[in-house]
Structures
1.
Amino acid sequence: MAGKRDQSGIISLIGIACSFISGGLTWLAIWNHPTVSAEINWFTIGASTFKVGILLNNLSALMLLLVPTVALPVHIYSRAYMKGDPGIHRYWMYLSLFCFAMLGLVVMDSLLLMYIFWELVGFASYLLIGFWFTRETAVQANKKAFIVNRIGDLGFLIGLAIIFTQFKTLNLIDLFGETGLIYQSAVTNGQWVSPVNSMDQIWLTIAGLAFFLAAMAKSAQFPLHVWLPDAMEGPTSVSSLIHAATMVAAGVFLLATVFPLFNESALLFIAIIGTITAASAAYFALGQYDIKRILAFSTISQLGFMMVGIGIGTWDAALFHLVTHAFFKCLLFLSAGAIIHEMAHLKTHSHLDFDPQDLRNMGGLKKYMPKTFILMSVASLALAGFPLTSGYLSKDSIVISSFEWALSKGDFYLIIPVSLIVISILTAFYIGRLIFKAFLGDFRIMDQVKDKLHGAPLHEASKTMLIPMFILGICCLFPLFSLNPVSYHDSWLMDGLLLDEYTFAPCHSAHLIIPLILLIGSIISWVVGWKWYVQHTYSLNTNSLALKAAFNQGYINELYQWIFVDGTLKIARFCYWFDRYVVDSLVAFIQFIVLSLSRLSVWIDKYIVDGFVNAVASVAYWTGNQVRLVQNGKLQTALYSVFLFVLLGLIYLIFF
Amino acid sequence: MITLTHFLVVSACIFCIGLYTVLSKKNAIMILVGIELMINAAILNFVAFGKYDKVSYGGQIFALFAIVLAAAAVAVGLALVLNVYRHYKTINPDEINELKDK
Amino acid sequence: MEIILFYAFAVLAIGSALLLVNLKNIARALFLFFIVLFAMAGLYLFALADFVAITQIMVYVGGVLILMLFAFMLSNKELLKDLKDSSGTFLSMPRWQAIVLSLGFLILMIFGIREWQQSPPTWIQQARENNTEIISTDNNIQQIGLRFMTFYVLPFEVISVFLMMALIGASHLSRKERDR
């Protein structure tokens, strides 16, 4: 049990199990019951007092249930996955830290405290991404993640400042409760007027955009998504918990919390960014060969979906998608982790050098890992939105609502729902590609490993891994969320998070047509994928420019490197040059002047001042020397002076 | 006609020459010579004015006294010069310029 | 006629005195002094003081000068050496301060004489008028002797005592030192 020698992580397990139990009990107590909140005074500055406290409403109770439900299987899975790793005690430590931060984030009743936990979650992510810190790529990745997250934190701070200036409080109940300040303020005559302050209406938009900036960084929206693919450097169990299910969902949670703050322009902006994110991520996923990268881009794309859900006003649909996404994405990552685990074993046993995560090295794994195959397929169906899965309910809710919203706003806005439909079909395609390339067909590196082994090259994952995956698989199916597999409005989740009404009218025909389009599109993409990847009749050019661009993530990373990193280095080099040559030469010049002045003053002192004194002394000496001659003791001198004075006396007497 | 003025002019010249001798000679004896010249000039002066004193012959009598005094002075002076020479081995007045004995 | 003789004697006296001053050779200077004394005696004669002239020759020339010569001869070998060395330079460079002073005196005295010449004292005028001027046919010696014994007897005695003192003093001063 003691410190570093303990490999079992039993304390963390017990901890997360207790969180799960207490989370469940809390949910039972709070869901569809009155809100509970409690607070105490924390500190006072001037006239304002800051309090710390807990707020439990439907939203926070839901999150409080979700997080341990996803974290507990991951903890159990980690026991098997991280076995034998030399840093495992750090792993349990960081994982528990993350769970603490995430749970704290969802129950806090003040925006300031949310910010504190927000930062803590980002920090825990940094620690876990760089878990294998001896690898250079891991260190670069965690630095990148933290720096991009900081940009988002700046947005959060700006939003905090604006809200505090406008409302003089950061308490969620005071702001967003039923009779909150936000509902008492309105925009009149170009001014955003609240009960305690008023400012120009542009600040309302800015506050909304500031909070969205925070969500952009945390939830990996375009263009701040660049950290998430690199975050795959961490262990797979970490990726499943943090970068699929919970932390990236924190952004969506924040936006749902401060939803009343957004005005029309902010919401439209959110929707547009969400769409762009979803589209670009789906495009990039098409060209990746690393399993985890495909799943990372899939996460970004689905987060884009959630942002669109918020942008069109249906944040309950966005949250529904968040919950279902947590389950099936976590399962996808855990299955991928099982595959990678087995491939890494193969690598060490056969002493070959191949990338255990590369799709091109896999194939036909259905033979060796059938249970993993089944579970991963279930999760993929959920991701694609196939009927009878939970994903079908949540994804269709967003797409259908977006269609209704676009109809109510104007025909130009139909771009968004149409894009979402295309993206969904692409989603089905790329996840199908993954399944086909990994599980079906023949094992691609079989020839290389055949001689080195006896028996099957890969084994099924251990029970410790399979059981959590199985639990998550059950949650991917529809019964957990709604007894009606077709209509999402009957889901207990949507009922609980009920908004009074949407701002747009429902369109019943859309409820039928769109799911049909999505289903047909998914089946067609799977048939095409089957032909290309299983039967190897690939009809496109592998080295085409479009595929290359997708593989290189649209060269966005290179762009950022060129602008920000190189730019900063150039500025630093310029400052160094400036300091070295301009400032130092200025200092040297001043030094030269001072030295010259001092030399001049030395010269003056030595020759002029001293010279004057010496001259006076010389004159005195010379005069004395001359006068001395009077007393030379000679007789004739005395006689001479006598007669001289006699003569002078006579002259005086005679003439004057 | 030899007037009083002639005598006085001659006397003045002799006196000045004697003065110059006293002040600028490097020999003690020459200094005494200079003194003698000055006294002689004074005696000439006496005699010149005594011409006009028949009543008491004052000029000529004092001329005689002056001659005697000059002689006595020279005698004593030369005795002193002799002593100085014995002591200092020189009679250059420039070298006898200290109060203490050498 | 007289005046020419007077000028001759005067020039002789002054010229010898000047030459005396400028010679480095002291022996020759003393001999020039000898000539100066004779010339001065001559000048006394022109002032009708015959006894003073004779006394001058006897005392000065015959006594003082001889004394000086002896003293000079006895004074040092260095001077004799000096005589030999200084034969090259006949005249010595005079010191300018002494010249200036002497000339100053000369000018002053000549100036005074010229001033005085305008207004001589009254007693000289009276002497001329009252015929109490000495004339060449007077018996000076007799008159001087008479005056010595009656009018000036005290200075006469004093001066003889003084001479004796000088004699004793000089001989004492120049005594030979005993060997120590």
Note: The interface with chain A takes residues 97-98, 101, 104-105, 108, 111-112 of chain C (CB under 8 Å).
2.
Amino acid sequence: MFKVLLKTKFKIIANLNLGNISQINKTVINKKNIENIDLLYQNQKVKLKEIFSIEISKNNKTKNEIMIKGSNEFFDYLGYSWEKNILITDSNVGCFAGAKMKSGEIVLNGSAADFLASEMEGGLIEVKSNVGDYLASSLEGSKVGMRGGQVIINGNVGKFSCFLMRRGLIIIKGNVDEMCCFQMIAGTVIIFKNVKKNFGISMKRGTIILMNSTVQLEKKFVKSGSINFNFLDLLKNYLTKNLLLNDLKKQKFVRYFGDKNIDGLGEVFVKEKL
Amino acid sequence: MKKKIIVENTFAEAFPMKASRLIITAHTKKWALEAANSFVGFATSVIACGCEAGIESHLNQNETPDGRPGISILIFSMSEKDLAKQILNRAGQCVMTSPTSALFSGNFSDKQINLGKSLRYFGDGFQIAKKIGDKRYWRIPVMDGEFICEEFAYQTKGIGGGNFLILGENIESVLSAAELAVSKINRVKNVILPFPGGIVRSGSKVGSKYKNLIASTNFEYCPGLKGLVNTKLNNKVNSVLEIVIDGLYEDDIKNAMRVGISSILETKNENIHSISAGNYGGKLGPFLFKLREIVNV
């Protein structure tokens, strides 16, 4: 397969819509096809070759690798409806990264702004640093958020994360801001550090695992107890084998149900204090 | 000088079946085995059990989906419908009921068999679906916690009826030879021995003098009927036992037969007269396992 290196020719100082880069997944990879992809820069239609220099080489992998050098917070819609291949950036990206992603892999070696993985359907996104608001939520006007796939965030996350999330797995290794998992429908979220107010409000179903044993849940969650959950064994084993995440092993959890204000059947596992 | 055990110039005749592999896990190996034994109970022959099932292998913790000790079982049936019915009934009554158990598919194909998809209704609305990786599981609340069950098992092709017969002078020698063969075959993957302890004494033929019976005793191999019927046993043979092998692939059954028969031949037991096989003249089953070719005699 191929490795495509896209290097910015100058510093990007205004919004750059990169949604069309996902056309790479559906075309034969050669310089001609790639350089003529239409992008929007400062609301003007431009060809990809006007923004990026292009280098194509062979790799020894089963998937194509698209590497972007010189990315910053103005890089919007990167990996929109992404499929099959691997997309890597060397720095931060803007809004809507990985939105409606179907499969493949996106690795962001920096932070991502709002609406990361919104309405994502499959694949894997890994973010090395922080993420803005509306992570894995629904896009404006839609009633369902993330529908599948996996997201790993090594930093903190902003407000309204997992809003209307329907399916999939999200691992957040840092803190989350207010309104996390608001109106969550289903899916699994693992949070390693703190949560803020209105956490899990109007949660209908789904699973949240809190690795911070000091978190105090609000009264809308009812304590159920600490029993033998086979599901956690299955999840631990999957995370260890596939995502090399050993943190859940040998941990015990207390289960809470909520949001009781809406008769929700969502479950929150809080790590037991040793 | 020790007598050589004769491998008769005959063949075993086997049939295509529908098969599936399931993995049962539990908190301890003991309870995984209890659930598995319950699942494969009353599953010796499709003649009256609806399926043939057995334990394929014991799995350690890093071979199972949930990192707990497990048992791999194979189940065979004559039709898709029977296989689906037997799997669902046995999963619900034998595995879900067993303490700490969980049930997963052990193979993959495009033909799905409802497992958790149907069993979930036992949860009465409190069941939870979870998609982990590419697979979907159902979490059904039960009194010891929760029963995890994969949404589907998968149907694959299988072969039933690989077999060989051990003919000897007395029951002690024949039984001990059969036990040795079973212990060796149990190490072969992709095969099961569905009968009690892997051994059959009531080998059958197709049909009966009684209209309602589809199978009856294989009188040609009954030592007690020597002199009364046209027997295949000589004067020295007073006991016969059969080992029936079901497997996923032709080569696996051949391999299992080779391992089993060779283990008996190596003993050079003077009381074992010969090794034979059951067939229907080669007219019914498409798979013919020729004994002499298999053991290279």
Note: The CA atoms of residues 7 and 275 of chain B lie 5 Å apart.
3.
Amino acid sequence: MTAGALGERIAGATLIALLVIFLIAPLLVVVLMSFTNQLYLAFPPTELVLRWYRALWDDPRWLEAGWNSVVIGTLTSALSMLLGTLSALAVTRSGRAWIQPIGSLIVAPMMLPHIIIAIGLYPTMLDLGLNSTYAAVVIGHAVVATPLVFTTVTAALRGYDPALELAAMTLGANGWRSFRYVTLPMIGSGLAVGGIFAFAVSFDELMLALFLASPRTETLPRLLWEHLSQTITPVIAAVATMVLIFTFLLLGSVVLLRRPDAEEPVP
Amino acid sequence: MTSATARAGRPWVMGRSYALLLLFPSAYLAVFFLWPLARVVLRSLMDPKPGFGAYTKVLFTGPYLYILFYTLEVAALVTAVCLLIGYPVAAITARMRGWRLRLMTALIVGSLWMSAVIRSYAWMILFQRFGVVNQMLVALGFTDQPVRILQTMTAVTIGMVHILLPFMLLPLIATMRRIDPNLLRAGRILGANPVRLFLGVYLPLSLPGVQAGIMLVFITALGFFITPSLLGGGRTMMAAMLIEQEVDIFLDWPTACAVATVLLVFTIALYLVYTRLTRANVARSLR
């Protein structure tokens, strides 16, 4: 190896190391902060205690918000899986030219700033009498979460030969049976991954929750946000750490779901 | 392709029944997505009386215009920084194999999913007056005493780059991995020096990824709310913060809707450019 190539490799490794530090270090700081003993943000902490986790456990607002977020996330995920699967089937299988643009309409909410959707949905929910209900938040979250299910299921549907469904139908299966016994097993892991993504989007969504939730349907990001704009205590770091761990576990489940798919031999 | 075979197989039932599945999703989108957007646009034009009153205010008075330009400025700056960091990182990552590549991909994709609120909070801790960054700056002799980083454009830019970098890296890496190393080898054998090899071969071949990355980061940056609110405070206001403030504090819906419409038109226009670019690139690579 020449000196030049060696230098290049060292420079490259340094750059990658710096990137990794840049991406990860701030999160580690939050985790460390949650174990500090001071009342105010001081870093690095002088001693490590569980004080803020106890404070978090003792405050019912955090637990309630956490529970609300899980409920809203689960319902959002279910609704998005239904919407996403129906539209993915129509777009990939119908073969009608006019349906293709609808695919880009379905993914459009992903690209738009959430604030625009939020200020449009707020009066719509008022009209429907849904304001400050779980339904309002779930409906809003499903608008921005469906694109993820749509894309993962579309990819899954394009990944195998539609002749399989045709074969089932030729053998006498009706539309539902061919979906249940052929399509669903084929897209199952894609659908599950999309559902987890939808849950994650809802679990982290702030803007729509700010406009559509109420103190009764307070979500975790909303409560975090309220605390951040008032006083900053290390309780927030404790909550943030729990949320980070939870997100990490969600991502881990995605990796586990995806692996068998990727290693499957192509028929 | 697949849909064409489906059509050839059973054109008389398949197409229609699959199209019927769209009934529920399209009704849902119409009521909870398109109608709300239309409402925003309509309200900006009709409230309190029909006309362009809200737009004259938003587009021709100093403070509003300033915020719109500031939004573009921050988005452009963030995009430039992402490209500057992202390009070399992506070029190195694209050459990785095996566990290294998997680890980098996991890191980049994983960080996409970490809460934006929490990540901005992390930078608030780091950027405090006596925070880690200030301690380091003093220790390294860059300043004598702690400087203010929070509530500056620097803080907002760093926080936003942290969140948006994956949007630059992923299309760049995808494009760079498709570059045939034999082309670079051929160029080298034919006597091109590294600079010419880069400018003549590598850079042009990686341009589709650069375009996609720039568009993705810029479009997403335009609508940012959380990071500029937490790290910029009231001093550095971006369009999304302005909309929220008009609604929440001043209860001025027409103005909020006018700003939202401007943001909407911008985003849609850029998105159309983006899809056209990516489609053209895909078509070119298939040729």
Note: Confidence is low (pLDDT under 50) at residues 1-12 of chain B.
4.
Amino acid sequence: MIEPEAAAGREQLIRTLLAEVPDPEIPVLSIVDLGIVRHVRQDLDGRWHVGITPTYSGCPATEVIRIAVRTALDAGGHADAVLEEVLSPPWTSEWLTSAARAKLKAFGIAPPEEPVLSPRRLWDAPLVTCPRCGSRASERVSEFGSTPCKAHYRCSACQEPFDYFKCL
Amino acid sequence: MSARSHAANEPDPAQQQAHFRYVLRLGDTSLVLGQRLGEWVGHAPALEEDLGLANLALDLIGQARLLLTYAGELEGRGRDEDALAFLRDAPEFANLTLAEQPNGDFGQTIVRQWLLDAWQLEIYEGLLGSADTRLGAIAAKAVKETRYHHRFSSGWLMRLGDGTQESHDRVQGALDSLWRFSAELFAADDVDERMQAAAIAPAPMELAARWSARIDEDLRAATLKRPAAQPYPWHGRRGVHTEHLGHMLTEMQHLQRTYPGVRW
């Protein structure tokens, strides 16, 4: 028999632990902020399962995150918990929490925006607000930036280059 | 029901083999194309395009890992993604012949990429409703990335095609020389027919029509001409490759060939 109260307590402990695992590329965000943690649950045999999903198929951080989660679980006394990869439903940038959006902006990365398309219609580049000066006058330099999840933009008002976290 | 049908609990070896081959072909095409794009790192015409090509390569190799891991499980001989990527020689690779063609100039790389991005878009969209839920899940993830890839490659196709006389002539030349390999993209064989019959894969003929329409639309915008169909002697998906794949593999597999079994 699993005690429901003890189970809820254990789940909370694991979730608190996971909320402290940072994303290796954008360390101001935790993997919970990013929406990578898909489930923390107990099966009928009492074993705990932690499900995480990759952002992009080729994101090199995925491997690092897996190791970091395993290490955190082991160190937190949950060495018996099973770490599993979840592919479906596929990760979307809509899973970023509102806290994550604010943290991204403070870090200098424009959070994903609803695609209001540029009037220039240059391959449907979305209009992105500059995270530094707040101007909407920005242009896309490259669809692909420093990591798979980011595009490279430049602000036309303050002239600063910045990363834009893409909608996926 | 056909005479081929088997009881649910009795696996059909020919069907299992076809399933393995189908997933292997997809995985090998992504892996080989990803490796080719990786050869651009540090050599692209501008930093932004260098990053762009490297990002595409990462997505493709990520997709290849998911597909080859699954293929290894379907095969049931204990081969994982690494064994399939690094311990096979060219005739055992089942990628589309187009994917292994050398990078050439930037225009040639863009044409190869665009033809295959448009192909992957149709394949992955077609796999979304697959009876094989694992393959459907991989496709659902990959299709979102592939939309970005197609936007990148079709965007460059338009800039180069509708650019200067020099850029126009170069991409038209690349298209003329690579076009013959497009005959293989939707050529159905026994593997495709079995997968289609089992509702695992979409019908190649339907995909071909949609691919062709997308290609014509992009070509119009890029002011390029669609070449005439040409005879096609290679079948990379069946292991009959151009000489280029072997050279590419010697580099990709260099470490395993020099120090067999070495671990990172």
Note: The radius of gyration of chain A is 19 Å.
